[in-house]
User: Fold these one by one.
Assistant:
Number 1:
Amino acid sequence: MKVFFDTVGCRLNQAEIEHMAAQFRAAGHQVIETAENADLVVVNTCAVTAAATSDSRQKARQAHQAGAQRIVLTGCWATLEPDKARDLPGVSDVISNLEKMNLPLKVVESEFLDFDTEPIARQPLPGVHSHTRAFIKAQDGCDNFCTFCVTRVARGKGQSIPKEEILEDILRAERGGVREIVLSGVHLGSWGRDGDNDETITDLLSYLLNHSHIERIRLSSIEPWDLDERFFELWKDPRLCPHLHLPLQSGSAGVLKRMARHTSPAAFTDLISMVRSNIPGVSITTDIIVGFPGESEAEFDESLTFVNQMQFSGGHVFRYSMRDGTAAAKFPNQVDGKTSKMRAKIINAAIKASEEKYLSSFIGREVDVLWEASGVQSDKGWTLHGLADYYMKVEALADSNRWNKLDKVRIETIKNDSLIGKISKFD
Ligand code: SF4
C-alpha cells in the first residue's frame, strides 16, 4: 500500500508522523511523497489557532482533490471536532490523539496482524516533511491549565514515554544515519513526573547522552519553569545544542497571571541569566501572544519593553485566537483584530531587531552546520542550506551536494534571516 503523511503544527506532530511512517514501513508499506496515487493519506491535524484548524481542513481537501483513495485524520483538531472532520470529503476514519499511536493497527488491521516489531533503521519522510533531523517523541499531554491553550484539552494529561523506548527510537535514527535528533513533547520539561521513581527531564537527558552516540541533541520547546541549575549544567556536553526555545507568551505580569502561566517577568529574567551563564552564546527563542483578552495598552507596552530586554535570538508572534473549551474564550474585554494585528507587527519588529543583532555576532566566526535541505545545483556549484547548532539558518556553496554532512562554516555575512559563509572544514 502507498501511504502519504501530512501534518500541520508543532514538532510533536512531525515526530508522530515520522513514528507512524516507520510503523507502516516496518509492515511492508511504501511511504510516498505526495497524496497523488496514495492508497492512504494520514493527516496529523492541529488546533492551536484558527489558522491551524483551517490549514488542517485544507490538507484533507487537498488530499481528496489529489485522488487519495482513503483519508484518515488524527491530531488535535480531529480530536476536538471529530464530527466536522468526518464530514470532510474522502475522510474514512478519525482517530483521536488517545489512539493515535495505534493508528496503523486501527486503520489497516489485517496488514498489521503479523507486524514485524523488529525496529528498522529510520528513513526521512519523502516530500515536504523530509528532514535530516529526526523528531523523537518523548512526552505527550500536559497537566497545566494555561487559559488560552486548547492543546491540553486535545492531548489530555501529561504522559512520559519510557526512557528505554525513547532511546530505542534514537538508536533506530542512528542506524539510519541521523546526526541530530529533536526531542519533542507538549510539556517536555514535565517528563518523568507521571512516573514513580522521581526521574526528571535532567535524568532523561543524562541517560540519552550516556547510552547513545547521536552527535546532536536538541530540545523542541521547554516551558520556562521547573528547570534548575543541574539541568543547564548538562550543556557542558557539546552534543546538546546551545539553543533553547522558552515560550514566554507575554512580558506583562498581569497578562501572564491571567494566562495562568507559572512564570513572571522576574522569574523569567532569573531563568535567562541562569541559562546564559551556563551556556555561553546560547540562542534563546520564544513565543509571544499579543491581544490576549484584556491586554491593555500599558500591559502591551510592558510586554514590549520586556521582550526588548530579553534580546531573544528569534521567535514566533501569534495573535490571540479564541478557542472553544478554553477559559480565556469566556474572558471579558477581548481585543479587536486591528489592535492585535498592529501589536503583532510591533513585537515582531522587536524580535527581528534582536535576532539581527544575535546573527551579526557570528560574522567572522565558525559554526557547525548540518546540511538539511537538498542542495540546488547551478554553474556556481551547489547552494546548501542547513542549520547551525545555535539554530540559525546557514547557506554556503560547495562542489557537491552535502546533504546530512556536518561541516564547519566560517560566516561572512547575513542575507535576510540566514547566515552566509564558506565551508572551512569538511565533515
Ligand atoms: S504548558 Fe500551557 S501552553 Fe503548554 S501545553 Fe500545557 S497548558 Fe498548553
Number 2:
Amino acid sequence: MALKIGVVGMRGIGNNHAECHKKDDLAELVAVCDIVRERADEAAEKHGVKAYYSLKEMLAAHPDLDIVDVCTGGFENGSWHFEPTMEALDAGKHVLCEKPLSNQVDEARRMVARADELGLYLGCNLNHYFTQPADGADERLANGDVGQILYCLHRMGPPGGEFTYGGAPSDFRDKDAPYFHVKAFLAHPFSIMRHFCGDITHVQAFMDQPGYRSSAGDVMLSVNSIHVRFASGAVGYLLSQRGDSTFGLGGWWSVEVGGTRGSFVIENCVEKLSYYPAKGSENADALEKMAGFGSPAPIVTNSGVTDFGATFPTRIHAFLEDVTNQVPRASLRASGRDALATLEYTWAAIESYEQGGALMRPQPLPQLRAEPPVESK
Ligand SMILES: NC(=O)c1ccc[n+]([C@@H]2O[C@H](COP(=O)([O-])OP(=O)(O)OC[C@H]3O[C@@H](n4cnc5c(N)ncnc54)[C@H](O)[C@@H]3O)[C@@H](O)[C@H]2O)c1
C-alpha cells in the first residue's frame, strides 16, 4: 500500500518533492502545508491535494499520514528544519528532511536522538549520490576494483565568477552569516566523501572569499579548502566555492577516489564515471603495463543524464523504498545520522578556520539502537 505523504514548505523544493511523490508508485501525496497561505493554496491546487497553513493543522486533519517531508528553509537554509521535524516525529511520523538537517549542530543531534528514541525513520535529502555514476563507483568498490582506498579529491561548486556576481545579498541571510555557504552546502560534498570513504576523524580548514565580495560588503566565506583524514587512514581534500570561479576538470562537481588497485572519477555529478585500473592490474592492457609513466586507459561510462534534477526522484524513491521495506534503521540510506555526520565535519571545519587552520576532531556519531522501526501512527 502506498505511503501517505504530507509536504511542509511549498516553495521551489517543496513543489519539487511533491511532484516526485505524485509520480512514485510507493507514495500517495495527500496534503501540503506552508505558513504563507498563498503558497499553500497554489501548491494544493497544482498537486490536487488539500492545503494547510500549519503542520499542526495538517497532522490533525490527516492522522493516517505515514511520512512528513520537511522542505522548509530559514536562516542559513536550515533554521526552520528542527521545529517541524520534531513536531512530526512526536506525532509518530517518519520524516524526510531537506539538507542541512539544521543550521545548528546541537539541534541536529537532538533530531537524530529523538527519531532513534521513538524508533522512527529520519532521512535527509542528501541526493547527490543517488546517481548512475555513484552506483557504478559503489560497484567498483564492492568488487574490490579500487583496493585499499588511499585518497579522495572532491570539488563542488556552481560555475560563476566576477561577471556573474549579483552584488552583496540584499536579504538577511548572507549579511550576518559568514558561514551561510559552509552550513547550507557542505552537507553535500561531505556526504559524498563519507559515502565512498567512510567516517572522517580529522579536519583542517582554510576559508576565504574573492575581492569582489569583500568590496561589496559581503561577508560570506565562499571559498573553502578542507583537508581531512578518514578513520581508515586514507586522506582527503575538499575544495568548495559558491559561484566565485568556474571549475575546469570534472565540471561543477567532481570526485576522484584512488586506491591500490584502481581509481575512479565522477564528473558533473550525474554525467560520467571513469575507472582507471591500477598500472600492472589485469584490467590494464599489456603495452600500458610496460610504459614508463603511461597510464592505463580509463573505462568510461557516460550515463546519458545531464539533468542534476534527476537526483531528486531517485533519492526520494530510495527513502520510500526503505520505509516500505522496513529496513533496519541503521541501514536507512542517507539517514539523519548520515546528515549529522556532515554537520559534525562542518562544525569542525568552522572551528579549525576560526583557530587559524588548527587540526580538529569532529564529535563522534551516536550509535543507533538496534530495535526494529515502529509503524508510523
Ligand atoms: N537537496 C538539494 O539538492 C537542495 C537544493 C536546493 C535547496 N535545498 C534545501 O531545500 C530547502 C528548501 O529550499 P527552498 O529554496 O524551497 O526554500 P524557501 O525558503 O524558498 O521555501 C521554504 C518554504 O517553507 C515555508 N515554511 C517555513 N517554515 C514553515 C513551517 N514551520 N511550516 C510550514 N511552512 C514553512 C516558507 O514559508 C517557504 O514557503 C532548504 O533547506 C534548502 O537548503 C536542497
